UniProtKB/TrEMBL annotation:
NCBIfam families linked: 3a0107s01c2
Protein name: Phosphate ABC transporter ATP-binding protein PstB
InterPro entries listed in its UniProt record: AAA+_ATPase (IPR003593), ABC_transporter-like_ATP-bd (IPR003439), ABC_transporter-like_CS (IPR017871), P-loop_NTPase (IPR027417), PstB-like (IPR005670)
Keyword ATP-binding part of the UniProt annotation: yes
Stored CDD domains: ABC_PstB_phosphate_transporter
Keywords: ATP-binding, Nucleotide-binding, Translocase, Transport
Record organism: Streptomyces mirabilis
ABC transporter domain ranges (all copies): 25-273
Ranges for region Disordered: 3-22
Amino acid sequence: KMRSTRASRPVVAGPGPGESDPATLEADSISAWFGEHKVLEHVSLTMPARKVTALIGPSGCGKSTFLRILNRMHELIGSASLAGRVLLDGEDIYDRGRRITHARRQIGMVFQKPNPFPAMSIYDNVTAGLKLGGIKAGRENKDWLVEECLTKAGLWKEVRDRLRQPGGALSGGQQQRLCIARSLAVRPRVLLMDEPCSALDPTSTRRIEETIHELSEEVTIVIVTHNMQQAARVSDQCAFFLAEQGTPGAIVEHGTTDAMFNNPQDPRTTDYVNGRF
Ligand code: ADP
Ligand code: MG
């Protein structure tokens, strides 16, 4: 049975005071290549703390590549090479000597297809990220953290009595919320989400959108979405990516979500947000 002594926050060895506050993430002139193929050119974008930034644009314009570069995930998939800088509250995450795990702990990622460890219990799925993040927590602290993260992900009430069941037994929408809970366990400062709802039904989608809205106070959120209504509902600002006729992906226009939808400056933005390509 879970203990729910919320009276005092337990001491979890991990981020210290202030080290888990939402951070501003800044891409400074990012270019990227797969071999000879240049897929991003001079992409600069500031993603402010406590805001939700939506990345929009057609398939193949480099949104996922850009998102992976923001937490050094692309180093796992091999061949992309990179120019430019990524600053987390002003610190370059690619600085020589700065370890990859440093970026990964502070900048979490949620993918299009929910990917919990299917045979692992719901409880263990949430705590799975702790070891990777170098966070040591005793049993009691873990219980507390599991409840906290599942609550933030909007899943606690549904699973509190079945924490020992496998993650794979949950519905698709629940699995995605479990993945959000897992990414929150290390107290990231930024959460990157690559089309987190495109495999989900409308009801699950709305629940994730509510979660995004609630989380935005404590973690900077960057979301890739093909769903323009979703971008309009969840984001504070949008960046429109385009890769025209074999040219590398670049940002055509960015601005507040209101401006992008109601007063776009570039005719290509107007066409895209109105579903014309
Ligand atoms: P988006 O997420 O906007 O659909 P991607 O970032 O997935 O775009 O892809 C951008 C470009 O990079 C595409 O031309 C794609 O074919 C290419 N690309 C993506 N991943 C790889 C990879 N691992 N190896 C080679 N080319 C890739
Ligand atoms: Mg993509």
